[in-house]
Design goal:
Length: 405
């Protein structure tokens, strides 16, 4: 067997041009497959990242009724018992982000608009989504402020600037009338258009006073040290929480509608990937077929001088294995810089495509995902395709005729 392996390796480099063509076929197939899958998965990851970062977080602790009926009356009490349960996960939970949010009517001298008031702990919120980096005017709010920050789109719609006064009218906890006048301290630009056009940020204490909901939260966002442990931590939290009052929900549940949409979209995209595999397969087969025509006399001569057909078949299989392996490895190495570049520098989308994506509430860019599984999965798939096609010379070794009439 060792002799056959050595013979197969030498055969590869005996005709360098032919070998380079075969390796290049696998290399470009791996490059195209990884690139296509990387951009597709990158778009999905960006959607999830935007929603997790600006909306749900990885885990939310809520009142058991809040998910079905998200009203201020179904807010939860953030007391010492709940804080104690969170403390039990020290070392596994990075930090928590308290929020209280509810609908309100925003008004100024000339316009009114339905908006979402987001009561936040400014320090924790900034740690969560780096909100201060999106500040375009004014300054960031503090815990003790009685001022608000507006999303940029809302500020433009309401024609409000720094120092102007925003009037808020709504309904607080258990039917209490909520109303107040708040100076605008800052304006932030949010990457999700729906949030950018309808969000008012208010310090948590001020928002709880506005809605007459002292020590109450709509949700407590829990950020794990390791996001891969999200489901496990959510399950353990539910075991410790009083399930009559509280529930812990993971981002997969909170974003289930978006995930279903992504799965449907990915099913269509997979068809394109499969078509790419077919094209790649025929391209590789054409290369192998050309090589077989060139080597027909060589195979005949080897059998004629005494080489067993099964030995020749094994040599052909090892040749295919070596060519496919080298092509797949070089393909991965060649694709890594390409994928990393577009991972850090997403392609901006313009025109109608940009408008369609923004209508869905997502940032109009196309990033590439650099997840290791993409490189492994696509390279292995192309390697298997190339290896299966490479079995054709082994088949021909058993069928080739050494003598013709």
């Amino acid at each position: 067997m060792k002799t056959l392996i050595i013979l197969a390796w030498r055969n590869i480099w005996r005709n360098k041009r032919r070998s380079f063509i075969s390796i290049a076929s696998v290399l470009f197939a791996v490059l195209f497959a990884i690139s296509a899958d990387s951009f597709e998965r990158g778009s999905y990851e960006l959607m999830i990242q935007n929603m997790v970062k600006f909306s749900t977080g990885y885990i939310q602790i809520q009142d058991v009724l809040y998910d079905e009926e998200p009203s201020i009356d179904n807010s939860m009490l953030y007391d010492d018992d709940l804080m104690g349960i969170i403390d039990e996960f020290e070392g596994r939970i990075s930090y928590v982000v308290p929020r209280i949010q509810n609908f309100a009517l925003a008004a100024n001298e000339n316009k009114t608009r339905g908006i979402v008031v987001m009561g936040i702990d400014p320090e924790k919120e900034n740690q969560f989504n780096e909100l201060s980096d999106n500040l375009t005017e004014g300054t960031f709010i503090n815990k003790s402020d009685n001022e608000v920050m507006l999303s940029q789109g809302l500020a433009e719609i309401m024609n409000l600037g720094i120092g102007d006064t925003l009037i808020l009218i709504g309904q607080g906890f258990q039917g209490v009338t909520a109303s107040g006048m708040y100076p605008v301290k800052g304006i932030v630009k949010l990457s999700v258009p729906d949030l950018n056009n309808n969000t008012v940020y208010m310090p948590l204490k001020a928002a709880q006073w506005f809605y007459a909901a002292e020590n109450r939260l709509s949700a407590l966002i829990v950020m794990p040290q390791n996001p891969n442990h999200t489901s496990r931590i959510a399950e353990e939290l539910n075991e410790k929480l009083d399930n009559e009052w509280y529930t812990a929900l993971s981002w997969e549940y909170l974003l289930s509608d978006i995930l279903r949409m992504m799965q449907m979209d990915r099913a269509g995209s997979q068809m394109i990937i499969y078509i790419l595999y077919i094209v790649i397969g025929f391209g590789l087969f054409g290369t192998i077929l050309t090589m077989m025509l060139e080597r027909a006399k060589e195979f005949t001569m080897l059998i004629a001088i005494g080489m067993k057909r099964f030995q020749l078949a094994i040599v052909c299989i090892f040749e295919s294995f070596f060519l496919s392996s080298v092509g797949a490895i070089i393909g991965i190495i060649a694709t890594i810089p390409f994928v990393l570049y577009f991972n850090y520098n997403p392609i901006p989308l313009t025109g109608e495509m940009s408008n369609i994506i923004e209508d869905y509430g997502f940032e109009a860019v196309m990033p590439a995902s650099a997840h290791p599984s993409i490189f492994v999965q696509q390279a292995v798939t192309i390697f298997v395709i190339a290896l299966l096609i490479g079995l054709y010379p082994a088949y021909k070794a058993f069928r080739i005729k050494t003598v013709t009439e």
